[in-house]
Amino acid sequence: MRDSLAAVRLLIGTAVKADPRRALVVLTLSPLLNVVAALQAVGLQWMVDGASGHDSTEAVRGGLLLLGVTVLVHQAAAITTDLRLVLQHRVGLEFDRRLMTLCSAPPHIGHYQDPEFLDTAEVVRQRRGEFGTALAALVENANLVARFLGALALLAGTHPLLALLPLTIAPLAAANRWQARLVAGAERAGAEADRRRRAVFSLATDPAPAREVRLYRLAGELSARHRAAFLAASGPREAARAKGALAVAAGWLLFAGALIGGLWLISRSVVEGTGSAGQAVLVLLLSTRLVGATTGLGWLIGWLRRSLDTVALYLRLVEYGRGSGGGVRPVTTAPAPDAAAPPHGDLVLEGVSFTYPGRTEPALGPVDLRLPAGATVAVVGDNGAGKSTLIALLAGLLPVSAGRITFGGEDLAAMPPQVWSARITACFQDFCRFELLAREAVGVGEPGALEDPAAVWAALESAGAADVVAALSSGLETQLGRTFPDGTDLSAGQWQKLALARARMRKRPALVLLDEPAASLDPGSEAELLSRYLRAGGTGPAAVTVIVSHRFTTVREAGLIVVLDGGRITEQGTHTDLLARGGRYADMYALHAAAYTSAATTPAAPSAAQNGRQLTPGVDAELAVDPGEMALDGTDGHREPVGDRPVGQSSGGQ
Ligand SMILES: Nc1ncnc2c1ncn2[C@@H]1O[C@H](COP(=O)(O)OP(=O)(O)OP(=O)(O)O)[C@@H](O)[C@H]1O
């Protein structure tokens, strides 16, 4: 009940905010007209009594009242319906806008990791078209209640017992509410299956997975899964609806019995001569109106209940936005509004850990780590070691579950999120393919410079991505993305280059985060990336640069290498230190080099030299393990798989 009241308040408040004048007219005039409409029956009563009593004045008065009220009600109803349609459209848009803000405004993205949030968001997203109609349901219910009360007031005037009719309608209303609650509960329980159904539908219809779906002949399997998910969600929903329908039918029987009793009372008074013919007509007309209003209410209450349920779910998302929902740890330290990030400083993690909602073990931590200002730090580790989680924590996208991260001595949790995010630039592993103009797709890296082609070109140049845009038909003004008829799609590597350029828009970042930045790049582009980001203070002399990579040509350039294993730091140091230590890093490095060496020496794979291609300086050659470095290990034969020649000079295939 409290939820429903809060939802009604929110709906009315949103309508008034979206369009105050229309809201005032629709919310007040509409119900008023429905009360006034009951006077039609009075006009008819006067007409009948005037005619049967040969009183032409009363008959004409009745006729005029009937005509006047009919014209007024019809005209005003047409106008208020128009106004309501526009208003409900605006309310729908207002909720869409709020939903977008709600999903993107929270300081971190922890809510996207929480299955409870995802389920609620799924239902709200599916039903978001109902926000506008929720207002319509509210207005229509108010109209019918007004019509019902108007009819009832006149009926009570003819026989006091008829005033008791509303009591018999209460069980019907309760049955309707119960049915709506049952259905809403079943819908919530089926949200996960609905999410699965949507995911399967996307797999079968989106262009990106189309190749693998064809190749592996998955259409039948996807279709079967889609149907199974549909049945899993819709079965309980239908059962709930049917169960509720039985209760509604019982409610109807009770009300119909009471109404028939009321009509019998009036008929008897007319027969006994205590009532007039006009009164009989009045009662007949009002009873019809009452039945109409009750039928409508029965249906509308279900609609209203469902609509208010959607709004109530939206309110739960709002609670999440405030950090008080689900398993996501709320931001406990209220950031000081005027807090600022120091220009530069060491980034320090003290006992930091993070546990994903629904998990018992931390994905990362506890971790203690100092990343000195100006340092280039590479993070390595097996799949699932916690590298991307670390990046998300450093970026402030996930709240730490325990411990703290400080920058220049300032606790990040006490810093307004927008202050910290303004100091960061990043290229994520699953970077976004912004289907915008090329200028915008890069410019969003620094929204203030979105309209500044010179700044965008500079970023493109410095990320080595200028060639991608130069080859586009309209250069910076080319529409990207295949969802647009005239849009240009790019290759994975080209999209990644734009993402890297985006990360170059911010001029003096304090922290540069690069999560697998070269995953889609060719060796030449990777080498260029290395020189631009990792060497010669490429990201600014005082910025901390953190790079996650499985490519050891990239990693070995870093001043500090951190090895993660099962969410813990197991080793840290320079490339040389870690090789000398002969631990996990040395193993990974040797394996990596061995893989490249064997690929280069396999006869079936023609070498670069055979192809007449020059080795890319700084890449192919760097893949070879420096014999001197491996010699640091000295004795451990299994870590010397590369031989004593650089790959480009290997004998393989020659
Ligand atoms: N949203 C999530 N919910 C629950 N667990 C998660 C979630 N995201 C990641 N994990 C888990 O957290 C752990 C660390 O994941 P993370 O993505 O940080 O690893 P990673 O080192 O970046 O891996 P990769 O090299 O494959 O990118 C993994 O065990 C993973 O299964």
From TrEMBL:
Region (Disordered): 626-654
Record localization: Cell membrane
The keyword Protein biosynthesis appears for this protein: no
Molecular function via GO: ATP binding
Taxonomic superkingdom: Bacteria
Transmembrane residue ranges: 28-48, 60-79, 148-173, 245-266, 278-301
Residue span, ABC transmembrane type-1 domain: 148-302
Gene3D superfamilies: ABC transporter type 1, transmembrane domain, P-loop containing nucleotide triphosphate hydrolases
Main location: membrane
Key words of the record: ATP-binding, Membrane, Nucleotide-binding, Transmembrane, Transmembrane helix
Membrane topology (UniProt): Multi-pass membrane protein
Residues covered by the ABC transporter domain: 347-591
Protein name as catalogued: ABC transporter ATP-binding protein
Species this protein is from: Streptomyces crystallinus
